[in-house]
Amino acid sequence: MSQNPPDLRPDLAPRAVLPSDARPGQPRIGMVSLGCPKALVDSERILTRLRAEGYAISPDYAGAEAVIVNTCGFLDSAKAESLDAIGEALRENGRVIVTGCLGADPAYITGAHPKVLAVTGPQQYEQVLDAVHAAAPPSPDPFVDLLPASGVSLTPRHFSYLKISEGCNHKCRFCIIPDMRGRLQSRPAKAVLREAERLVDAGVRELLVISQDTSAYGTDWKDRAGAGRHIVDLARDLGGLGAWVRLHYVYPYPFVRNLVPLMADGLILPYLDVPFQHAHPETLKRMARPAAAEKTLDRIAEWRAICPDITLRSTFIVGYPGETEAEFQTLLDWLDEAQLDRVGAFRYENVAGARSNTLPGHVPEDVKEDRFARFMEKAQAISAEKLAGKVGRRLEVIVDAVDDEGATCRTKADAPEIDGNLFIDHDFARLSPGDILTVEVDEASEYDLWGTPVASSA
Predict the structure, then answer these.
(1) Are residues 234 and 365 in the same domain?
(2) Residue 169 domain-assigned?
(3) Are residues 239 and 90 in the same domain?
(4) Which residues on neighbouring strands pair with residue 29, listed in sequence order?
């Protein structure tokens, strides 16, 4: 059983779970999937297409005819991690195809690794397939190559990410994702629902709804079929499928208020992942973010009035260019007032191409480290107090893993990898991943809970 806190970088997805089944003589392709959950979904789509063409998936370098590295370019540290992963794949296998956000700048990759077979950008699935065909021609056998109805999944079978749009229309100065992934393109609601239905039919118990800006879903349809439908309609439809539905990356637009009654009614999980990023108006202006932090507090109070059990999660940037000690203290004071349930932070980094690089007043690294530590200390204290208040309560949980020590579960307030866990260390022998049961909370730490199954719900 693992405990928190996890790595709080916002560009990380859960570790991919690679299947390893292959028939004799079947060409096998490896996959290294880096970056956020949106990139993980891209990896799933690539592997699903490859499986349909007769390829198997190799869980290691040695058994693969070629390796695909799906890269991230969100931060300079993520770029360095991507280059390291490409280098490792070249050393261990030698035949490497690069895709993903970092692939939007092919010269950056080939300058460091000129021996890669091909470089493609994000969502360029056809080009990735062409590169795989050139490296290892397909050899399909329609009698034995069976593709799961839900496609290839890189997450445990009881939860799945559901990407509802690509791109983003925001122009935040610290972010280059819109430059790499383009403007907002919402997927048709019927296509999203069909995918969600297939996933639930295949045994998925929790749908994690993701995009670059989930609350903007459908706003790009002004003159297209489906115009007038938005995230509230989609969430209502998804809520009728019988699975847990969790919303990520929801910007705090005023109409988000209309989502909260669906949470109060139990249609979707009472959980909002809102990227506030900061609280001081001047810092937010330098970020090119909405700067009305006081209205944000009013909205939080309104959401909690509608749905008292709502869990609010957010991430913040500390040490943004120009951030003064007074601005940082405003953020700490805001956090005291907002009392968010789940909080992550990361230290500002320059990213090639980001407009924030040229802002004056870059914060020294030692000051960033100090502010990060103070911020996380504050967030940890709030989390510890909130979790202590859950001791003695009965909560519904979903089981993620079971081993000899116990069961690792999550409550409705916890998303995979980024939030806390609830551990069951006795009476767990009959539990399996994907089970949903009621537990009574016995103990709490800063990030995690421990509980006992309630007999009538086991």
Answers:
(1) yes
(2) yes
(3) no
(4) 57, 66
Please report how the helices 231-238 and 189-201 are oriented relative to each other, as an axis angle in degrees rounded to 10.
20
pLDDT per residue over 26-53, tens digit each? 889 999 988 888 888 888 889 888 888 8
Judge whether residue 414 has pLDDT over 70: yes
The number of residues making up the chain comes to 458
Residue 300 CA to residue 230 CA, distance in Å, equals 21
For 91-146, the pLDDT digits (tens) are 999 999 999 988 888 999 999 999 999 999 887 888 999 999 999 988 665 544 55
Quote the domain boundaries for residue 376: 159-388
Task: Note the pLDDT of residue 113.
Answer: 96
Number of domains present in the structure of the chain: 3
Count of Cβ atoms closer than 10 Å to residue 405 Cβ: 10
Mean confidence (pLDDT) of the chain:
88
307 is in an annotated binding site: no
Give the model's pLDDT for residue 128.
93
Q: Is residue 76 within 8 Å of residue 352, measured between CB atoms?
A: yes
Q: Which residue in this structure is represented by tokens 């009574």?
A: 440
Task: Give phi and psi for 345, each to the nearest 5.
Answer: -145, 155
Q: Beta 311-318 vs 407-411: how paired, if at all?
A: unpaired
pTM, two decimal places? 0.85
- DSSP E strand boundaries for 248-304: 271-273
Per the domain annotation, does 379 fall within a domain?
A: yes
CA angle 356, 375, 289 (to 5 degrees): 35
Q: Is 409 annotated as a binding residue?
A: no
Q: Find, among 173, 180, 179, 418, the residue nearest to 320 by Cα.
A: 173
User: Is 36 annotated to bind ligand?
Assistant: yes
pLDDT tier, 152 (very low <50, low <70, confident <90, very high otherwise): confident
Quote the CA–CA distance of 227 and 223 in Å, as a whole number.
7
168 in a labelled binding site = yes
Query: How does residue 159 score in pLDDT terms, banded at 50, 70 and 90?
Result: very high
> Is the domain of 244 the same as that of 326?
yes
- 241 and 357 share one domain: yes
Amino acid at 264: A
Q: How is 399-415 classified by DSSP, letter by letter?
A: EEEE-SS-EEEEETT--
Q: For residues 316 and 307, is the Cβ–Cβ distance under 8 A? A: no
Same structural domain for residues 224 and 364?
yes
